[in-house]
Structures are given as structure tokens and as C-alpha cells.
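User: Second chain of the day. Same drill as before.
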Amino acid sequence: MPRRARLSVAGVPWHIIQRGNNRSACFFSDEDYQYYLDTLNEQARKYGCSIHAYVLMTNHVHLLLTPEEKDSVALLMKNLGQRYVQYINRTYRRSGTLWEGRFRSCLTQSEEYVLACYRYIELNPVRADMVVHPREYRWSSYCANAEGRKNKLLTPHEQYLKLDREELARRKSYRALFKAHVDVNIDNKIREATNGNVVLGDDRFQAEIARTLGRRVTKGKAGRPKKIIEI
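Assistant: Same format as last time:
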């Protein structure tokens, strides 16, 4: 069965997950994490992708970004992935694949879900019991978005900027998102949309993207359509 074409619209935020092959580790030292971030910065600028949030876990990566062009994300992820695999194979004298096939992704509705994706991404180390608070994890965007640490990789999304016009107040509002009760339903929606390559948003947003792409953008029902029996 041919795989579904990826949903791709310029100017709409994407949530991306890329996992190590068989969920094996893809980062082995601090130098590996830093090389990935440096290469991500270089390739994102080259292909016109604004990075809003990220976390590099031991065996997978989460990114929240907005592409300038329809093909920007595909080009970014292809070249980033190839460059990083070459680096790992050269550094550790290994060969073969590192990533688990295609990266997973979903188009994300700005008003409803972008800030939820920020939080979902930056809370990954907490959910994995690696740290108690996201600020304790070095390889994420939390300290930049929440506490103002300089990070040349990041471009704030419009919804982040709308938290407050004043920078210190905006960071305070952002930190408050992490103190609020985590909505498990929203987290599940983010996870399911990303793994399923469908649109994360309300009915209106889904219909808008479907019209733009001329195709279904939500999860289909399992099984074959029922036969109509004429009497």
C-alpha cells in the first residue's frame, strides 16, 4: 500500500517527531546534541523554517516550526537527517541508518494548539522522569522561551508574542502555562495527530486545510466501506 502523502502548507506551524531506529539512542554525548542544534540552525535558515520550540531526547526529537514554502520542511529534515547521520557514523565508526523511516508530523492550528505544542514539547523530559522541572533539561527551548536565555535558533511564534507586549511579562505568562493543570485530552490530540499525519485543529481549520490541499486531512475510519444491498 502506498504511504499517504504528507500534509504540507506554507505558513502553517508543524509539530514534528523524529525517532531513532527501533527507538534506539541517536544522541550519545553533549557534542552530538550540540552538533544537531548547530546543523538545525544552519539548515532551517537555508530552507526558510522558523523554529519555535524543540527538545532533543535520548532517542527522539520534537520540533515546532513554521515553513516559508511548501517544500521547506521536507528539505530541512532530509538534509538535517543526512548531515547528522554522517556525523554520527564518522564519529563512532559505525554504518547504516539511524532514524526510524519518515519523521511524523501534523499541521497545527495557531490559535488553539500552538502554545499547547510548546508546552507538550518542553515537558517531554518531565514526562520521561529525567528532570523535575523543564528548566533543568539542557537540550530544549524552555530556558529561552520561559526565562530569556539567548538562543539564536529560535523565532517566537505570533501566539507566543501575544502573551504580552512586554518581554518580562510575556515570559511570566509563558511560565504560567507550565503551572496550569495539564490537559491530557489535548496532549493525546497532539500525539495522535502527529503520529497520524493529520491536521491538529477544530472543524473550521480542518475544513480550511482540506480545501487548500484538495484532500482529506483527518483520520479515516478503519475497515472497508459497507456495501449497499439493493432490495
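The CA atoms of residues 123 and 134 lie 6 Å apart.

User: Great, on to the next one.
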